[in-house]
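It is worth pausing here to work through a concrete case rather than discussing structure prediction in the abstract. The textbook approach is simple: state the sequence, then state the predicted structure, then interpret. We follow exactly that order.
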Amino acid sequence: MKRKRRYFQISLLVVFFIIGVGTGATLAADREVVIEVPLGLPELVSPADNPLTLAKIELGKMLYFDPRLSKSCGISCATCHDPQLGYSNAAPVAVGHQHAVGVMNTPTVLNSAYSTTLFWDGRAPSLEDQAGGPMTASVEMAGCPNEIAQNLNKFAEYRKLSMIAFGEYLSFANIKKAIGAFERTILSGNSAFDKYYYGNQKAAMSEAAIRGKKLFDDPERGNCKKCHTYTKTDGYFSDNMFHNVGIGFDVKLKKGEEYPPGRYAVTKNPADKGRFKTPTLRNVAQTAPYFHDGRTYSLKEATIICLNGIPNNNLDPEYKTKRKLTDRELEDVVEFMKALTGEMPMFAIPAIPGYKQVSN
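Step two, the predicted structure:
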């Protein structure tokens, strides 16, 4: 049976075409490519040890949707980072190998190319390092690095494309590099905000969204911009830092439980207890639920929590200033955040070499 392909709306100004390995089309030679980013996003820079090439992007795309990266052969990257769900999973937490329930909300992959650290605690310094984490985590994909590479190298399409991309057959390190390369191209911009702010199209945002922007920026009222930063050249809407908003400290602990460590799990600095990475607000209306515990699907409720935080010993200093917005003002801020919804990347989900559906 011929596999039916799904398509998503385009945001990239450069279309990375379907290479079509195994269908007669081939790449004579691989070369580095430059992605022209959508309006509102800064220049896309790939790491020196993993420059973007067409073969890597196509290989990473195939791997991203291949469930054989998991032990059960039933969980792919796209299972939790679903293009149809804002590259997240629309659930408070993820469910992994043998239906193990995780403890963290699944961040979106959208625009993750601009994230200087990955995971809520920032333990991964790159997309490549992040890609390897879920594949081997016992509660996620539970795979074995060597077995994953060996299994995929059984298929000529993977061997061929890997030789073009890396000059060798697939290794676990190159699997991570390919997925990182593909994820770097999952960009979303050209939103109503971008057209208004970067494109000088003053009619692009509604009156409510414009009022919300003023509150969002105002350090005495919303103060949202302090952490969800944007500039004239960078509209990522995150400072890539770690903050204690108090999420989790309002939950009654059971015997033996501890409050969420956040960044402390990485640094072991007591001042980092309860600090979590600032998520981007781009496409936030499409990536509910919110916070690292996925506690609410409501942008309005999330905004109310962020205005004053939840008391604890490590609460960020800016919460010493109490803020309160009226219902209408809250709605305006929400309308502004909705204006950050950008166009989605478009591509065909590739056929996966030799894959037959296996029950999870």
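Step three, interpretation. The first helix runs from residue 54 to 64. Residues 1-28 have pLDDT under 50 and may be disordered.
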